[in-house]
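Recall from the previous lesson that a structure prediction takes nothing but the amino acid sequence as input. Here we apply that procedure to Glycoside-hydrolase family GH114 TIM-barrel domain-containing protein from Cyclotella cryptica. The sequence below is the only information supplied.
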Amino acid sequence: MEKDEVTHRSEETGETDEESRATDEEKDDKVDDDSDEIKIFVDGEEDTITKNKAYFPEWNFDHVRPWVPLRRDDAYDNDQILQVAGHDLVMLEKANGFRTHGSVESGAFEAAKRIKNINPKVKVLFYLNAMIHYPHYEADLTFKKDQWAMRDPKTNDFYLWNKRFVSYDHRNLEFREWWITRALDMLQHDEIDGIFIDAIIKTAAVSNSIDAPDHDKAYIETANDLRARLPEGKLLIGNALRANAPKGAGGEGNIKHLKYLDGSYLENWDRSDEGIAKTIRLMRTALKAGRLIMFTSTPFSGYPLAKRYTEQQKEILATLKTMTADDKYPYIEQFIEFPLGVFLLAVEEFAYFSYHDSVDASPRTGNAAFDCNRYVEITRQLGNPLGPYEEEGEFIFTREFVNLKVWVDVQNKVGKLTVKEVRDEL
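The prediction returns the following tokens.
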């Protein structure tokens, strides 16, 4: 994922969070928003994904439903596993467990077993990147770099992401089978409930840098093939929806990818005021179509790039770097109301929320505060919505639930969550 979290340099991938985010497709924050209606399907087109949601994560309006993205390159300690098991959904990020178990596949599987032993209801997703060839996977042993990696047709050099990692090329049919098989092999484990496909936006964005005609369409063919071969009851989620996604096979805001996905992860939703407003609409469109949403946020939501940090944000970052994970929770709680407010404007059945300062749980490199259940804003009673959100002014949004009033000022990055008073019945 191109993280919107506090900066750390990853020992596994050698990249900072900002380097991971500042990719070619995101240099232009302009949002193309020429229509009030965003559609997944054209009129008369059939939704072929099953309406049976029995295999979706647990969900109700009792409280905000939490999910967590996480990685640790060795092995999670018992307290961390216990914390993860308190969420409805976990995505085991790239670089999980390879130092202890020899590969990311084995590391993720071992972590999934430990999580399921505590809470069998948790849905566990295995990470698979659509475009970037990350190290430490067992499948790397059979990756044919010379034949399969994307090259710049003008120079014949490998096309590199972040000047480091070779790129996949979905126009190669032999590569496609290798990539799909990686996913299907992991789904043979009962403890792995689904696949998370990252960097979908890059399947189209690569054409901004080199001549790669119809690569986005080739990726969709790969994804459709994986969907067709997906075992019954397994989930396919992607990092798809993005307000500033380039126009292409993905359609408006990348919404067309939900034709083959059970749902979408949401990151970098805070690039602009217009982008935030459009993100809310994208989420509601997805949820109305029966797709799930995994919304991610941090104390820096609203200021996604280091170059945009205010002096206050820089002070927050410096303070967090001096703290233990446990000390971070009461400190970053003061910043939760804006991102949670944005999420609550759109929330419907199967929408999940995550709030963390990092996804790196290693005490050496990240020391993440990732447990959503440490925040009363997430665990307290919510209740059913009393209607959809309303726009009360320019970029001012409100929504009301049985137990909560939500007010969000997008331009000033302010959210207010007001708990309603409980009145005794006479």
